[in-house]
């Protein structure tokens, strides 16, 4: 039996070895070792807080946190692997603050022990480490475009106005302002929208870097769109100019009309802006008076200026001239006797061809237009009797104060008295 087992031993061993080689060849032909390249695999950062907790921040350089990974394994293994099975990590606890490289570790989450090899297009994560810096900014709100014709912007209100940016000091130092902008082109009604906050450097270039963190990304903007209307401005004058001077009635104002804005319900019935006389007091003035009026004080509630260039002010000139004096003639036929007691008759006693001279005062344009046909006088007999406590009158001539009726703008400082003849009417004996 022993001889049978040992007979041709070499040949038998050679046969076994040959069989193994054949099996190995067959297996590798049917399931050969091959490679697959997995593109754009993100590198997971581990223990990032080990840097952040020390008041530092890191920045990944040159896009080294995304790599290509090559896996060598049998085809049967490779056929079961996808991008989701590739694991690339970089542990921040493995560096000190003098390092700029962190080793990238590669593996798979299945069949890791059956891989022939796994390599990446980059062996290290390239980083820079800086001090963490924070900066608080006021968010500036603005608009682009113009509302529809006949409309202007009203108030702009946001739900937040402060922003904190944080990140590497070198990046945060570049940021000089934060702003939002809302497009209002063609709008005719209020708008409520979320606006994205953008960061700018001191040259108004946008600063957009993933390593700069913003405490908020958007703010809510509420913008009024107001209707406009052009209305005149009316002025009144108070006071008395210096002695011998008078207001001509002419007022020049720049602007004489203003463009206002407001809700339609507020301005639809607005026809003018009225400036009260207290704003233009000419007391004691002897020449034209020019004043600057703050029109905003006289705008109704809910009404605003729609033109920034006006500045909300008006320059107003009130014209004042020296008064002229002239002598005018009061004809006898322009005197009226009023309230003559029953049973009496009254008539004015005139001299010099039944006319009377009166000195009047007024502006040149008014004095020039004074004619006899435009002046008159009246005497109130009943008032005279009351003032003098008379119950009856005797026949005779009385000196009575007359009331002059002069054209507008013309006055007389003279106290005019007329002689009035009173006669009792004769009774009709046949009556």
Protein architecture, described:
By secondary structure, this protein is mainly beta. 13% of the residues lie in helices and 48% in strands. The protein has helices at residues 2-6, 9-30, 49-52, 75-78, 169-172, 264-267, 364-367, 381-387, and strands at residues 33-42, 44-46, 56-60, 66-74, 86-91, 101-108, 115-120, 124-144, 151-158, 162-168, 177-183, 191-196, 198-200, 213-214, 218-235, 245-254, 257-262, 273-275, 289-294, 304-305, 313-322, 324-331, 335-338, 344-349, 355-362, 376-380, 396-401, 403-405, 410-411, 417-424. The strands form seven sheets. Strands 2, 3, 5, 6, 8, 10, 11, 13 and 14 form a nine-stranded mixed sheet that branches. Strands 9, 12, 15, 17, 18 and 20 form a six-stranded mixed sheet that branches. The longest helix is centred in the first third of the chain and has 22 residues, at 9-30.
Which range best describes the helical content: under 10%, 10-25%, 25-40%, 40-55%, 55-70% or over 70%?
10-25%
The major sheet is characterized as: 9 strands, mixed
Low-confidence stretches: none
Averaged pLDDT? 88
Shape: rod-shaped
Radius of gyration from the alpha-carbon trace, in angstroms:
53 Å
Q: Based on DSSP secondary structure assignment, what is the total number of beta strands?
A: 30
Strand content: over 45%
Helix/strand/pairing category: mainly beta
Head-to-tail CA distance between termini: 197 Å
Number of helices: 8
């Amino acid at each position: 039996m022993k001889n049978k087992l040992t007979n041709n031993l070499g040949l038998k061993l050679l046969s076994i070895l040959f069989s193994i080689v054949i099996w190995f060849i067959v297996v590798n032909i049917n399931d050969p070792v091959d490679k697959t390249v997995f593109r754009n695999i993100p590198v997971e950062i581990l223990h990032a807080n080990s840097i952040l907790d020390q008041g530092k921040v890191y920045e990944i350089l040159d896009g080294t946190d995304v790599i290509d990974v090559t896996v060598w394994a049998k085809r049967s293994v490779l056929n079961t692997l996808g991008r989701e099975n590739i694991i690339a990590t970089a542990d921040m606890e493995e560096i000190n603050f003098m390092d700029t490289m962190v080793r990238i570790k590669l593996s798979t989450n299945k069949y890791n022990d059956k891989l022939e090899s796994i390599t990446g297009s980059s062996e290290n994560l390239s980083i820079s480490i800086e001090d963490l810096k924070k900066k608080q900014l006021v968010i500036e709100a603005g608009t682009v475009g113009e509302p529809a014709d006949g409309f202007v912007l009203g108030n702009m209100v946001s739900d937040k106005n402060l922003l904190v940016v944080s990140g590497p000091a070198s990046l945060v130092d570049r940021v000089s302002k934060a702003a939002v902008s809302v497009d209002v082109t063609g709008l005719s009604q209020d708008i409520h929208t979320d606006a994205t906050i953008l960061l700018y450097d001191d040259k108004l270039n946008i600063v957009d870097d993933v390593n700069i963190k913003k405490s908020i990304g958007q703010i809510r903007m509420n913008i009024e769109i107001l209707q406009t209307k052009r209305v005149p401005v009316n002025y009144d004058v108070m006071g008395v100019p210096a002695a011998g001077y008078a207001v001509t009635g002419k007022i020049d104002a720049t602007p004489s009309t203003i463009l206002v804005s407001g809700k339609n319900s507020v301005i639809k019935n607005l026809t003018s802006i009225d400036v009260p006389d207290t704003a233009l007091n000419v007391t004691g003035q002897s020449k034209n008076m020019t004043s600057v009026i703050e029109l905003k004080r006289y705008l109704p509630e809910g009404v605003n200026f729609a033109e920034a260039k006006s500045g909300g002010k008006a320059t107003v000139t009130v014209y004042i001239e020296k008064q002229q004096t002239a002598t005018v003639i009061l004809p006898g036929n322009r005197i009226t006797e009023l309230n003559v007691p029953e049973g009496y008759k009254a008539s004015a006693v005139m001299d010099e061809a039944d006319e009377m001279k009166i000195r009047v005062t007024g502006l040149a344009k008014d004095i020039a237009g004074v004619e006899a046909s435009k002046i008159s006088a009246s005497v109130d007999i009943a008032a005279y009797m009351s003032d003098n406590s008379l119950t009856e009158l005797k026949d005779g001539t009385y000196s009575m104060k007359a009331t002059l009726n002069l054209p507008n703008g013309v006055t007389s400082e003279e106290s005019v008295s007329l002689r009035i003849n009173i006669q009792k009417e004769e009774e009709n004996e046949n009556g």
